[in-house]
Amino acid sequence: MKTKLLLFAALFAVSFQFTNAQCSRSGTFVQSDPAYSISGTGNITFTTSGTKEVIFEADFATVQGADLRVYLSKTDDILATNSDALEVSVSPLENDAGGFGGPGVSPITGMMSFTIPAAANAELDTYNYIVIQCIIINERWGHVTLGANTGPDCNVLSVEENTLLNAVNFHPNPASDVITVNNDKQLELSIEVYNVLGKKVLQTKNSSLRKQTINLSSLKTGVYLTQIKAGGNSITKKLVKQ
Known about the structure:
Radius of gyration: 23 Å
Number of strands: 18
Largest sheet: 8 strands, antiparallel
Helix content: 10-25%
Strand order of the largest sheet: 7-6-10-11-1-3-4-9
Number of domains: 2
């Protein structure tokens, strides 16, 4: 029993680590105009759970302005023709406290995060700059030059991210008797299901089918861990049986 519990704990730890693993590119804000002070650290962070964010760290500080927006850009100027600028802010950083030409009196400080739109299909190396732009006067407040990939799982995410995470999923979850595994890239998959004691309760034969079903009718109601392997890589996902 102790061995089983240790196995489950190990699997749970792997699952937790995979979900929270990350890779980032970061840099320090550069002030674009002497009138508009800005400082601190900004980064883009991708996690193996699929989350993609632009994050301003706790040391971030700037002055208010008219309709400040946050962008990812291929150049340090979002107005350049080759910038391919992508807005990640869904609203201004602040209310219009600064008017049409000068900074406001109340500073903007502290950590902020902005979700990168999934539709953008952004990869870690797609953009090289974070830019804060004052839209009304078309003036750049400041920018971050993003550095090299750093983090415990950059080798997993890399530029292409994790192939398994993007290519393989199953539904429904929670499930009753059957789940369908989608394998759009037709990878050679091995799938194993473990119960809370770490006992393997289901295993499928290696398959590269685009879609395959797994019968769960033999399983009791509860929480399981599903480990999917392909090409030397693996992901672990929680499965709930109703």
